[in-house]
Write a structure and sequence with these properties.
Blueprint lengths: L9 H24 L1 H27 L3 H4 L2 H5 L3 H22 L12 H31 L3 E3 L5 E3 L2 H14 L9 E2 L6 E2 L5 H18 L4 H18 L5 H18 L2 H4 L27 H28 L13 H7 L4
Antiparallel strand pairs: 1-2, 3-4
Helix pairs in contact: 1-2, 1-9, 1-10, 2-5, 2-10, 5-6, 5-10, 6-7, 6-8, 7-8, 7-12, 8-9, 8-12, 9-10
């Protein structure tokens, strides 16, 4: 219904998904359980990749063929990918400071950092959604079609669905409650945010899946499906209260991989297109003749409705308990909250 996973390459496409999902689960466990794993990847590896990225763009500015033909330069050159990589990595580093209570991680005021960095990440995506909606409208006025070609050579179909999902993202920011309720687990392997229960995770996952489906359509089989499911599965089965840490770890890890090896999802046997491309292909030199935006529109409506429902539930619970939903923790007494708190030191 959502993706074109069929035909001769379907086995490769499913295998690719399994490899990405399993790899993200594995790396998240390494990153959360080990200081060497966490700091080594989010500080050491990121520093090395930053030098690599700078070298590519310096080389491209000098018209060096190796840089101009580099897959990272060709496929991953939009502002969004770099903003997401460094924002997610900043979140991982900040969460480790809180988890290990190092430096500013010991202070009370820094407990608001998880809310701030998640809000920034959401705003980055909202800005991208609104950009696509505007460009789609401009394309419709100029060409009679909502298709517009991104700087990375991907045809996007901008419309009201982007506005709806962008608004859902803004609502999702206000659905984050208990900003100061940040704890370290007894084993020091997780930063816990108990007030971020299954209801928030569901609303976030629907919104973010729709974001990737609309704005990263050629990547959404992986970054909108496998990437979102990996931290959610961990939070459901063995890491209660640690979902936001799982999410940051897996997101930053995926961004590093995708930035360096973009052809895995763009031009290989593992590539998967959403049903949006009704022609069955996506090429930069050929304007798509037809589009199937119905699925994107349906999920956009679901996204805004679910996030609105959660916000209303938060307001109702806050009024009933007399607790400020941002200064205090309003989900105390729920199963998710209590199971997360049972792990806190």
């Amino acid at each position: 219904m959502f993706f074109q996973v069929y035909g001769d390459l379907s086995l490769y496409q499913v295998l690719g998904w399994i490899l990405v999902f399993g790899g993200l689960i594995l790396f998240n466990e390494i990153e959360r359980r080990s200081k060497i794993g966490g700091y080594g990847i989010f500080v050491g590896l990121l520093a090395g990749l930053s030098i690599y990225f700078i070298a590519i763009y310096v080389g491209a500015a000098q018209k060096a063929e190796w840089a101009l033909n580099n897959p990272t330069y060709i496929h991953m050159n939009s502002w969004f990918h770099y903003a997401k990589l460094y924002a997610a990595s900043a979140g991982c580093i900040g969460f480790m400071l809180l988890k290990y209570k190092k430096g500013i991680g010991k202070t009370q005021w820094f407990k608001a950092f998880p809310f701030l960095i998640v809000a920034i990440n959401i705003l980055i995506a909202v800005g991208s959604d609104f950009e696509s909606a505007i460009r789609g409208s401009m394309a419709l006025a100029e060409t009679g079609s909502r298709w517009w070609l991104s700087s990375e050579g991907v045809w996007l179909y901008g419309g009201w669905w982007n506005w709806a999902n962008g608004i859902a993202g803004l609502i999702n920011i206000f659905c984050m409650t208990g900003w100061w309720g940040i704890y370290s687990s007894r084993k020091k392997d997780d930063m816990l945010w108990p007030d971020m229960t299954w209801a928030y995770i569901l609303a976030y996952d629907i919104w973010n899946f729709e974001y990737t489906y609309l704005n990263l359509p050629t990547h959404s089989w992986y970054c909108g499906f496998a990437l979102l499911l990996a931290p959610t599965v961990a939070a459901i089965f063995w890491n209660k209260g640690g979902w936001i840490q799982n999410r940051a770890n897996t997101l930053a890890t995926w961004c590093m991989f995708a930035q360096v090896f973009p052809t895995f999802q763009d031009a290989s046997v593992f590539s998967v297109l959403p049903v949006l491309y009704a022609d069955g292909f996506m090429r930069t030199d050929v304007h798509p003749a037809t589009a199937a935006p119905q699925v994107g529109g349906m999920v956009a409506v679901l996204s805004i409705l679910v996030n609105l429902a959660l916000l209303l539930a938060i307001i109702k619970r806050s009024k009933r308990s007399g607790i400020n939903p941002y200064r205090g923790e309003i989900w105390k007494g729920t199963r998710d909250f209590d199971e997360a708190m049972a792990r806190a030191e």
